[in-house]
Design goal:
Three copies of one chain form a homotrimer. In chain A, the strands form six sheets. In chain A, strands 8-11-14-17-20-25-28-31-34-37-39 form an eleven-stranded parallel sheet, with no helix packed on it. In chain A, strands 9-12-15-18-21-26-29-32-35-38 form a ten-stranded parallel sheet, with no helix packed on it. Chain A folds into three domains: 87 residues, Udp-n-acetylmuramoylalanyl-d-glutamate--2,6- Diaminopimelate Ligase, Chain: A, domain 1, CATH 3.40.1390.10; 202 residues, 3 Solenoid (UDP N-Acetylglucosamine Acyltransferase, domain 1), CATH 2.160.10.10; 35 residues. In chain A, a hairpin with a 2-residue loop joins strand 22 and strand 23. Chain A is α/β, with parallel strands linked by helices. The N and C termini of chain A lie far apart (86 Å). Chains A and B meet through strand 22, strand 23, strand 38, strand 39 and helix 5 of A and strand 4, helix 4, strand 40, helix 5 and helix 6 of B. Strand 40 of chain A pairs antiparallel with strand 39 of chain C, so a sheet runs across the interface.
């Protein structure tokens, strides 16, 4: 890709505010994993387990914990938190450039409250009463409904749909295909079938939130669906109406949260975790991949509930037994009773 | 949001065809839950369990069952079905207004059979031979393929894609990001890899169907994929080719139905239920969240099959035991045999 | 739908390079299942299990294995692989026609490297440095980011989003709503919350790949996410950053592969299979529906790990017992010990 960026070791050290060791003018053109990095690339070692790779790496420079740097003769940047410094270096090397400010002539912008530093891409549709704050980027094909608000320096990627009455805080990133503010799933059984409950709430999203591609966040039934600050959601997340998610919580791909569930702060949900409706999950709860949370969780900690795969023949045999597990318990209880009775009889 | 609507208690009673009690000119500006509603808001009590909240509510008026109204001194609307009346009231208070009839100049409309009452938003693309009936709304960015048909008073939200040969009945709502009529997943193994089976069927959707954001309904292989009347599908539903879904069936978020499955009428599938291909589910079957239906279900009733989470350490211990469940059965059978033999020996 | 195609039996036999039996000028207008096909329709019998339907079919002609043709008096096309021939016939009968070459005037095409045989639909946005090869079709509303490459004869359906730095091989089909190249889910915990790890890798997709509607394939963190040749992915597939998928692998709807997982060649993942991150799956591995792969799989074969549904009351009883499975094992072990001790005492 065009737009490759190059830094000298000394420039990187200055930008990352780190001490370095080695040739200050070593030119670095990108980042690569330790085992693959060449002499023009920066790398990092964040896990002491992979320390041995240091001996053979051909990386131009490595971000390292000072404790591990003593055995390393190459160029390095010293940090107590190499992984965090890798994150910051990734921003420096990112060749992706934001489009320039301005409204593409093919965009349809009814809103008047768009800051002049905003970039609005081709074929966007921005309805009336929308507010788009300083420095935001709206990529091509985005549709934003009446009365919604996009915070400062947000990046709304191509083909996102934001319904009316949605508020997004500053510095959020919304990836392509995301739908925010679609109707929550509310229906009352009526004499002639389902009657729609109009969803009168909106969606309120905090600061520094990132939402992965093709995710959905539904509007609330009466009150808002609320996503806290620093929440990160991976692709294909589904957040139902009136869910509340606390600050700093992270959800890996394809998590699904049913209506009115409340999830605490700094939780981590691994991939495809499900949460049923109307329950509460405390702060600092960690759920392993694919599990379903069926009851409120009050204690912080790690929770699990699914099996990994095994050979199909073995699985089938055990699963068949599972269907008679209750019976097995009764048989064991019977055996215990028999032995006790006989023991007594013999005693 | 702009467009707030206000009704007096008497006006609401007339609109909902309900008796009321209290001050007829009480002005109501919206709906809120019973515990949160202020004097300008309507609320409702649909579950006698929350009856006690009635005593402390500050709601301007409450939709109530007559049996519960005897203890309530405030303004109220009397109904044998308060939840249904809440649904109807939600429609009255909804500030969202449909766009005006007409075709936005940026839309590309090849079709000639578009009723003059239809609204077609900016940047839509409507291919040839498409028919769009009276009162339908096609929001911005929607693409509709050749020969498809959109029924009366449908609302197709922004950035929906409808392929060719799709028929949608009257009064349907299709949320943003939905794809209808994409190819079913059909391939034959050939000498040089997979060979595509062209999907020659279409999709036929009944009346009053609602389809949640980012859902997919695939076209049939030879015959149509069929969605009955009054079917409601939440976000991220995935309906494979040649599935048939009976009238009135409801699926919460992220349900997944594999090819040629037939689902009866008035079924409810909770969130993220899966149904394997080529099976049949009877009418009035209810499946709890996240379950996988692997065989046909003939009897109406409630079906389950997943665990909720537990502490990871506890789960791991039990899961390890599960992998030897077949062995445990054999051990118990052996114990039973031993006891029997000895009992005989002792007898 | 308009555009129905008609072939005589002799023409079909020539096109499919098959021997036929019966009236060469029988006109066939489409394909239908054996039980439903009328005299103007072609059908096929690929599974000897349904042989009995042959006796009653009214199909105009049937693709048959020669062994089964001996008992059949009707028109037939003889093939050792009727299912593959059905796939090829489906291509012949497909009425869907590709749009003509040319760039729609409403499309915004910055790229210069677009072959003159390419069709670019209305409201597409093609950024700079994009390359689109001979015969490709880009349907309406597609957005393609800077520097990406679309191979020969690809079909990119409406409202697809392809980020920058994505490479798609020849003859791929990408269905509507797909997002390719969105950011992988990479964040480092920092002093003030999550810090984004910019995703500097791209996505590299092989030849003859098909990707189902609303799927997501994320760009790599440092290196590319890689999809091999002849890979077929159904709707709503989610492929995280740095995943590698081998040639010929097939995934049914809603599969989810976490970051850096490596999946071998010619694997089949049934619907909604999950694969955790950083594991490896060998070639020729088959995973049944909905399972979660939590560890590397070295041996080819079939793997399972989820229950089907059962009546909720039965499930609840067994599930309650499961939560004490470890205790049950201890009780059985205790019984075995007691019996042994007593046996010894009696011995």
């Amino acid at each position: 890709m065009s737009g490759q960026k190059t830094f000298s070791l000394a420039e990187l050290a200055a930008a990352l505010e780190l001490e370095f060791r080695g040739q200050p003018d070593t030119q670095l053109e990108g980042i690569a994993p330790l085992g693959a990095a060449g002499p023009e690339q920066l790398s990092f070692l964040s896990n002491a387990k992979f320390k041995s790779v240091l001996q053979s790496t051909t990386a131009g420079a490595v971000i390292l914990h000072p404790d591990l740097a003593t055995d390393f003769a190459g160029n390095c940047l010293l940090s107590a938190n190499p992984y965090l410094m890798y994150a910051r270096a990734s921003a420096l090397f990112d060749p992706f450039t934001k489009p320039r400010a301005g409204v593409h002539p093919s965009a349809v912008v009814v809103a008047e409250n768009v800051h002049n530093s905003v970039s609005i891409g081709a074929n966007c549709v921005i309805e009336g009463d929308v507010e788009i704050a300083e420095g935001a980027t709206i990529a091509p094909g985005v549709v934003i409904g009446r009365g919604s608000r996009i915070g400062k320096y947000c990046y709304i990627h191509a083909n996102v749909t934001i319904y009316h009455g949605v508020s997004i805080g500053d510095e959020c990133i919304v990836h392509s295909g995301v739908v925010i503010g679609g109707d929550g799933f509310g229906f009352a059984p009526g004499p002639n079938g389902w009657e729609k409950i109009h969803q009168l709430g909106g969606v309120q999203i905090g600061r520094r939130v990132e939402i992965g591609a093709n995710s959905c966040i539904d509007r609330g039934a009466l009150e808002n669906t609320v996503i806290g600050n620093d929440v990160i959601l991976d692709d294909q997340t589904m957040i139902a109406h009136n869910v509340i998610i606390g600050d700093g919580t992270a959800m890996a791909g394809c998590c699904q949260v049913a209506g009115s569930a409340v999830i605490g702060k700094n939780c981590t949900l691994a991939g495809n975790v499900g949460v049923v409706g109307h329950i509460t999950i405390a702060d600092n709860v960690h759920i392993t991949a694919r599990c379903l949370v069926t009851k409120s969780i009050i204690q912080p900690g790690s929770y699990s509930g699914v099996f990994g795969v095994t050979e199909s023949a073995v699985w089938r045999k055990n699963a068949a037994r599972f269907s008679k597990l209750d019976e097995l318990y009764r048989r064991v209880a019977q055996l215990e009773k028999q032995l006790k009775i006989r023991d007594k009889g013999e005693g």
